[in-house]
Design a protein that fits this description.
2 copies of one chain form a homodimer. Chain A has 332 residues and is of the alpha/beta class. Chain A has a single domain, classed as Metal-dependent hydrolases (TIM Barrel, Alpha-Beta Barrel), CATH 3.20.20. Chain A is 42% helix and 12% strand. In chain A, strands 1, 2, 3, 4, 5 and 6 form a 6-stranded parallel beta sheet that branches. A 3-stranded parallel beta sheet of chain A has the order 7-8-9. In chain A, α2 links the parallel β1 and β2. At the A-B interface, α3 and α5 of A face α3 and α5 of B.
C-alpha cells in the first residue's frame, strides 16, 4: 500500500488551525484528507464578540454544509469521515470569552466549544502566559474554571501557558489536559515550546501533545521533513506513542492587521511581535513540505519514512486525538 | 374518578410564568402537578445580560435537579412527567437578547431558548407592542428574524404585540405561532387582550392561545372561576378545542423594583404602570382560586364543572401545548 493510500484510510485530526476561513481553505482541508480540525474562534474577544464569531460559523455551516460539519462529540468526527466531510471543533485560544463569569463555561460548552486555552501569551484571570516574566500559577478563579471545565467536558489547552501554570493545571485538573500545538524545547528553543518535565507530566496524566508546524516552533522554514519527523520519533520514544498527534498551528489568509490583533489585542499600543523574528515582524515562511493543510499526506509519508509502523502512524495522525476527544468532550 | 385524580394523570403545561424562582416556587409547581412551564428569562436584557440569566438557570438545574429539568424537545416534557419533575422551557418576553443580530437567533436556540416574543409592549426592532399608539407592522429585520425562528425551531410569541404586527407575523411565519398568555377582548377589554379576528387567524394557521390568569387580563381578582372557565368554553366554541391552553402569567416573589424593570426597563425615567390600576401601581391581587401554581387542580375542576369532557380538559390543560411544542421546537 502506498503512503497516499494509507493516508486516505486514516482519521486525520489537526488539533489547531488559526486560519481566516473561506471556501477555498475548507477545500484545502478536504484535499489533505483532514477528518477534523480544531478551529480558533477567539484570541482576545469578550463574551459578546464571541457570540458573533459563533454566529459566523453557523452561517458557514449553512453555506458549506456539503464539505464541513460541526463536531460536538467524537462520534461526529467518525460521521465526518464516513460522509467525506471535515468536522469542525470549536475552541478558544484564550479564556477572554468567559470574562470573570464561571457560568459562561457551560454556556459556551452548550454552544459547541470543546477546547479552551487558560492563557494566551499574557497573564489571564486564570494563570500566566508563556511570554510573562513571572508565573504565579493557577489563580483562585482558575481553580474554579478548571473544575467547571472538567464538569462540562471542555478540554483544557496549555499551548500558550507558562511552565508553572501548566504544571499546576495538570495537577489540579481531574481529567487529562492537552497542549494542542507546541513542540519539545529539546528540539527547538523557544518560549512557546515545552520542557521535557512538562511533557512527561502531561503524558503521565493521560494528556496529549499536538506537534506544531509553525516556523517559529520548528526552527524556521528550512527545517526538513526528516528532521521534523525525527523529533516526533524522539518524542514517541520519550512519552510513548499514545500521547501525541498534530496541531499544526496553520495560519492561512490572515492579514497583517489580524496578526496585530493576535499579538497585541487591545492590551498594548505597540505591536509585540514576540518571537516573530522576520523582517518587519510579519508572517513567516512555512516549510515547503507543509505549505497548506493539503500537504497533510506528506506528514504520513514522513512518519512512515522514519520507520514508524502503520498502526503507530494511524495513532499519531488522528487516532490518539479521537480517543482523547471521545472521553474529553463528554460531561462528567 | 375525582377531578383531583384526573388532574394527577394529566400532562399540565403552563405556557408562561414570570416568577422570580427559588426552591419554594419550584415546589409550588410540583404541588400543582405542573409538568412543564415556560419561564421568562428576559424582559429588556441584551445578549450579554441574557447569558447571565441562562447561567443562573444552569446553576438552578444543578441545585434543584431532583425536581426540575431543562426542556429542549417535547420528549423532555414526557420525560419530566415520567420522572415526577417539572420541565423548564426557556423563553424571552422581548427580542432584546438578539439585539440587531440575526445570528443570535440560532445562538440562543442552541442555548435552549424555544419561545421569543417579537415585542414587549413597546416598538421593537421587529414590530409594535400592544401599548404603542401606532403600529407599522413587521419591519425588514422582523421578516428576517421570523424566517430564522422558523428555520431553527423557535416559537414566535405575540402576547405583548399590537394587532397589525400580530396579524402580519401570522401571515409571514411559515410555521404556526403562539399567544402564550392573553385572553379574548370579548371577555375583558384591555390592551393586552386579543380581538376575535386575531384569535381566529391564529387558530386557522394552527397556532395556540394560552389563557392568562393575570388579574388585569380577567377583570380583577373578584372574577369567579366559573366566569373564567365560561370564557374558556366560549373560546373553545369559537376556535375549536385544539388551539387553546394555559399561560397563567403567574408572577411570584417579584419585588417592586423588578416590577419597575418589567414596565420601564431602561427606556423611561418615569414608571409607566400600563394597565396596572392598583393603588400605587404595584402588584394586583390574584383571584382566590389561583393564588399560586399549586392551585392548578382548580382549573381542571373548573373546566370539568363547566361540562367539558375529560378528553377536552386533557387537551386544554397541556395536551395541546405538548402537540404544538413537539412540532415547534424542532429545526426545519
Amino acid at each position: 500500500m502506498t503512503a497516499s493510500a494509507i493516508h486516505d484510510d486514516l482519521v486525520v485530526i489537526d488539533a489547531l488551525q488559526a486560519s481566516n476561513w473561506d471556501r477555498a481553505l475548507l477545500e484545502e482541508l478536504r484535499a489533505g484528507g483532514v477528518t477534523a480540525v480544531h478551529v480558533t474562534l477567539v484570541f482576545w474577544e469578550d463574551a459578546r464578540a464571541t457570540l458573533d464569531n459563533i454566529g459566523r460559523w453557523h452561517r458557514f455551516f449553512e453555506q458549506h454544509g456539503d464539505i464541513v460539519m460541526p463536531v460536538r462529540r467524537a462520534e461526529d468526527i467518525e460521521a465526518a469521515k464516513a460522509a467525506g466531510k471535515t468536522g469542525i471543533i470549536f475552541g478558544f485560544q484564550n479564556c477572554s470569552p468567559i470574562e470573570d463569569d464561571l457560568a459562561l463555561v457551560q454556556v459556551f460548552h452548550e454552544l459547541g466549544v470543546r477546547i479552551m486555552q487558560l492563557t494566551y501569551n499574557n497573564q489571564s484571570l486564570i494563570g500566566a502566559g508563556c511570554y510573562e516574566a513571572s508565573d504565579p500559577g493557577i489563580s483562585r478563579f482558575g481553580r474554579q474554571v478548571i473544575a467547571e471545565m472538567n464538569r462540562v467536558g471542555m478540554i483544557i489547552d496549555l499551548s500558550h501557558s507558562a511552565e508553572r501554570t501548566s504544571l499546576e493545571a495538570i495537577e489540579i485538573s481531574e481529567r487529562p489536559v492537552a497542549i494542542t500545538h507546541a513542540n519539545p524545547l529539546s528540539f527547538h528553543e523557544g518560549l512557546r515550546n515545552k520542557s521535557d518535565d512538562l511533557l512527561k507530566a502531561l503524558a503521565q496524566s493521560g494528556g496529549m501533545l499536538g506537534f506544531s508546524t509553525y516556523p517559529f516552533h520548528i526552527g524556521g522554514a528550512d527545517t526538513t521533513l526528516d528532521a521534523y519527523c525525527g523529533m516526533i520519533a524522539d518524542t514517541v520514544a520519550m512519552l510513548g506513542v499514545d500521547h501525541v498527534g498534530f496541531g499544526t498551528d496553520m495560519c492561512r489568509k490572515l492579514s497583517a492587521e489580524y496578526l496585530d490583533w493576535m499579538r497585541s489585542g487591545r492590551w498594548s499600543k505597540e505591536v509585540d511581535s514576540g518571537e516573530a523574528k522576520t523582517a518587519g515582524g510579519g508572517w513567516p515562511d512555512w516549510p515547503e513540505w507543509f505549505q497548506t493543510p493539503a500537504d497533510f499526506p506528506n506528514l504520513t509519508q514522513g512518519l512512515l519514512d522514519k520507520g514508524l509502523g502503520e498502526a503507530d502512524v494511524a495513532k499519531i495522525m488522528g487516532g490518539n486525538w479521537l480517543r482523547f476527544f471521545r472521553e474529553g468532550f463528554e460531561p462528567r
